[in-house]
Structures are given as structure tokens and as C-alpha cells.
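Continuing the batch. This is chain 6 of the set; chains 1 through 5 are on the previous pages. Same settings as before, nothing changed between runs. Recording input and output for traceability.
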Amino acid sequence: MSVHALSPAPLALVNARLIDPEQLTEARGGVLVRDGVIMALGAGVSAGALPGDVKVVDCHGDCVSPGLIDLRAFVGEPGAEHRETIATATAAAAAGGITTMLAMPNTDPPIDDPAVVDFLLRRARDTGRIKVLSAATLTRKAAGHELSEVGLLQAAGAVAFTDGLHSVADARVMRRALTYARDFSALVMHFCEDASLADGGVMNEGELASRLGLTGIPREAETIVLERDLRLVALTGARYHAAVVSSSQSLALIARAKADGLPVTCSTTINHLTLNESDIGDYRTFLKLSPPLRGEDERLSLVEGLRDGVIDTIVSDHNPQDVETKRLPFAEAAPGAIGLETLLSAALRLFHAGQVGLPDLMAALTCKPALILGLPQGRLAVGAPADLIRFDPDEPFVLDTNSLRSRCRNTPFDGSRMEGRVKLTLVDGRVAFEEQGILRG
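Output for chain 6:
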């Protein structure tokens, strides 16, 4: 199902709790969608005040907000379709309220050639339910040595440059990459990890790792590379996004860089915001992640960083792994967890715990990632693309992996009690996901 299908019939979502992440406000009212854009919104959009050709859906007080924008999702296609395809990933994303996702370039072949960018975008148009954007590798084959052709890849449609799962170790290569990206006004999204410090590590370094008999990865593996990168940003002036920050040390560096006026932003994952190393429990490999889950004090520092605006966006870090790579001893299992379908419901844990207000939380999932990529969506405003979701933030459920739409089942929230369910997802006004019968009002 292409997101570029003919314009759907006009639709109005009324009697809703409108969440505006740009203005950080909540209000009662409705949204009128016509020709794929938001035509009107607010208290004046009600069932009795609409033209006869408009289909009216009573939201019964559910929230309506812009659709989520996920800046870090690994999709198997091309090359690892047994793990995930664009079709299955976008079905999961739509069910989770995601209307735009940025696909990482760690595929086979990697996205380091304009032809592969073109392939991914065409497949997304042909089989995707949501908008799929392509990142390209920062270096050839994401190997950290030879620079990718930023200009050609950008012309083919790549919107950001990253080696995804890998960190560029060579400072000279990283400086050249930032300089090159600056000349094309391109965004560099870097995963910060010193491979020599992380080598052999499988979880956060500390007392728990020692008790479990597992080799730890110190926070410094992240912060050493991040500090180097920020110095190179100051040297080059390139736009830079730290793909994942997971510690208070990293937050302090980002906060200082922003205070100095550097063009720097950052994300953290929903897993690092809502889980900690203790959740690993009895060697649960679905919680083996990269970077590893940190201690509870670090998780709380990330929540504070999100609330204070040091952290710009929350990502799913969706990374499907099959049974053969996860049903292994903890030290041998591959890192990664799926997260597209659970991103919103997991994020709402922070709202229900009173740690982050709902508009602020939605801003980190919608308008802020849109601003980083220069996208028109992610806003609840007249004239904006009608990428919208309707969700009940309070509806409880227990996560059953058999109900997930991803091809793999490696979720860290298996069997967890969750709150918040998406009922409707619109992409350019077209239904990408609908809970059974919801459009009947």
C-alpha cells in the first residue's frame, strides 16, 4: 500500500483531546483533514459544523496528535528479509503510531550507493504503510575508513549520514566526514562507542555485571568518542546528532555543547528511558542492547535530560533479531530489540509516572525530530501534512508478542503491563492503521 495513493475522502476527528507538541498545549476540539493536509482544527471543528461530504469520527475524548517520527530504525531489507521487511516494519510502526521512520543503512548491501537509496525508497513507496526515509552510510560499507559520496547520496534522497551500528574510530576520518557533510549542509548522526573499551563487554560495567559474571562496558566508551566528536564539530561547524546517549556524562557534554552554540542535538532510546540494568534479571537476552542498559541513577538522569530539553528526541532503536541470534547464552547473543510498535506505549510510562508532561513527551517524538530533519510533518497546525494519530493514553493491556506485527519477537517488554493504545494512524490523511471498527465512530 503506497503512501502516495490518491487523496482520501475528507475526514474529521471530533471530540478529541488535541495535543500540540509545538505549543506544548492540550485543548478540546477536532481536526478536519482534506486532500492529505490539516484544513482546520480546534473547538470549532465539531460534528454539527462540518460539510456533508466529511466523514465524522467521534474520538470520545481520546488524544489526537501528530504521528510519531522515529529517527533510528534498523530494517532487514535489503539482505536480511528473514528478520524484517519494509512491509512488516511499517505495519508495526503504523500500529504503534509512527508515521515517519528513518531507516538505518546497515543492510546487505549497505546503503552507501545511490542505487541502494533508490531501491529502499522505491520499496517503501510500493510496500510501506508509512513514510520511510533513508539514511546513508557515513563511510563506505560503514567500515570507518573511506568516506561515502555524501553529495551523490543526498541527491538520491538520503537525509542523514551515519554508520548506524558502528562508530568511526579514526579522528582524522571523522573530521573529514564532518567537513564534507558541512559543505553539503548534511546531517551527521553518529553512534558513539570506543570499540577498544567496549570490546568483549556485554552489559553495563559495575557491581551487577560482576555478580552476573559478565564483562562490562564502561560509560566512558561512549563519552570519550562523544567528547572527541563535539570538539570536531567546534572545529568544522558541521551539523551533528548523537544517535544514542545513555549516561549523565554524555548529557553533561551535550548540554555544554548546546550552551556554546554548537549545532548539536541528541537522542536516547525508549529502552534506556524506561528500563535499567536490573531488568536483565536472569540473563534475559532480549534486554542485551547497544549501548547497554545503565543503572537506575543513569536512567533517571536521562529522564531529567529529556524534561530539561538536553535530550531532543526519543527513538525506538528498532533492531529485529531472530531466534538463532537471541536464544543463546547472554554473552553470545546479538544485541538489539524491536520497538516500533511499543514506542508510544512505553514512552507513556514516563507520563503516567508524572516524570514528563504529555505535550513535552510528544514533542520529543514528533516536532523535534521533524525539526532536526527539516520535515513539514510532526505538527498539529493548519496546512501541515495530515500525519495524525488517535490514541487512548490510559487504556491498559498486557503485551503479547504473538500480537506484534514485526517479523521478529525480541521485545524487552514481553508480558509487561502497558498503558496507552493507538486506535487510528493517518499518513497524509490516508488510513495506515485502524483498530477494528474505529472509523465507524
